[in-house]
């Protein structure tokens, strides 16, 4: 994996299947391993960061990090630091607290609903006395497609997150929550690293046909097919849903596969292994959304 050749054979296979290899090569030139000044400035304004990786048992999770703006910052041309780290009860906390020679593969995404901007940084994480440090392998931005606009009118709410609730199937309330979601985050992995991405749409774009299964349409994007390419080589996946008003998070781990329709549509089918719900996981309360004009109706 290098800045000029960012795709492994899984992503290449999907690009060829869809017929976008040439476009993917063009877009892939935007992927580097350095953090430019504009990217560093963007990170320091963010009150949250999503991180994806594997727990000690190999299950994949997407987790939420929050703090006052400045808790994530670039500490060099290829490194960011995160103050505070994950909550001790988070499914990824144990893995990211372990010191390894090469670091733990992680994917991160900083998404700013206020400006409909997002930035992804994938690399290797190691614990520090103050939280986490991540050495970047890939740094790039995505277009604002399918990002809902939200404002952050208040200050962080006091109090601590509730104890997480674990389950092996979705409750009725959790299914209803997912069915009304307009945003979630997706963690995937490949042999050389991890990735965290965003999925968005109008409420109902994620369907919950059973307590053990989710499906969603894969909307046209940047043609990189990093997430679907990863799933083509490793079906493990982690999903994160956030209640933007109350701060409750719903983390799901399991496996996912992509179904390709004769009409050119793509549907991802996720099978649940475990769910973790945490009330007040985020101290931030965002405004109601202004839906992206790119969202399919």
TrEMBL record:
Q: Where is the Pyridoxamine 5'-phosphate oxidase N-terminal domain?
A: 172-258
Organism superkingdom = Bacteria
Q: Where are the transmembrane segments?
A: none
| Chain coiled-coil ranges | none
InterPro entries per UniProt:
Pyridox_Oxase_N (IPR011576), Split_barrel_FMN-bd (IPR012349)
Query: Which Pfam family, any one, appears in the UniProt record?
Result: PNPOx_N
**PANTHER family assigned:** FAD-BINDING, PUTATIVE (AFU_ORTHOLOGUE AFUA_6G07600)-RELATED
Record's protein name: Pyridoxamine 5'-phosphate oxidase family protein
Per the UniProt record, the lineage of the source organism begins with:
Bacteria, Bacillati, Actinomycetota, Actinomycetes, Kitasatosporales
């Amino acid at each position: 994996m290098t800045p000029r050749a960012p795709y492994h054979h899984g992503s290449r296979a999907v690009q060829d299947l869809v017929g976008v290899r040439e476009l993917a090569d063009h877009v892939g030139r935007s992927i580097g391993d350095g953090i430019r000044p504009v990217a560093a400035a963007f990170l320091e304004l963010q009150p949250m960061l999503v991180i994806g990786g594997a727990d000690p048992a190999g299950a994949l999770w997407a987790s939420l990090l929050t703090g006052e703006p400045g808790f994530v910052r670039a500490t060099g041309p290829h490194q960011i630091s995160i103050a505070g780290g994950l909550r001790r009860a988070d499914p990824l906390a144990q893995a990211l607290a372990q010191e390894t020679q090469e670091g733990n593969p992680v994917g991160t995404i900083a998404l700013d609903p206020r400006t409909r901007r997002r930035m992804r940084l994938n690399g290797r994480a190691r614990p520090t006395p103050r939280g986490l440090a991540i050495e970047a392998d890939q740094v790039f931005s995505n277009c604002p497609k399918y990002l809902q606009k939200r404002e952050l009118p208040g200050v962080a709410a006091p109090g601590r997150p509730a104890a997480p609730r674990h389950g092996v199937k979705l409750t009725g309330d959790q299914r209803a929550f997912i069915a009304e979601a307009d945003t979630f985050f997706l963690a995937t992995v490949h042999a050389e690293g991890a990735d965290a991405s965003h999925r968005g749409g109008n409420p109902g774009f994620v369907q919950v046909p059973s307590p053990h299964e989710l499906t969603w349409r894969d909307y046209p994007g940047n043609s990189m097919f990093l997430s679907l390419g990863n799933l083509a080589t490793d079906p493990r996946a982690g999903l994160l849903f956030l209640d933007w008003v109350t701060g409750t998070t719903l983390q799901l781990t399991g496996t996912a596969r992509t179904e390709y329709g004769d009409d050119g549509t793509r549907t991802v089918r996720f099978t649940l292994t475990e769910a973790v719900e945490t009330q007040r996981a985020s101290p931030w309360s965002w405004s109601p959304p202004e839906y992206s004009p790119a969202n399919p109706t």
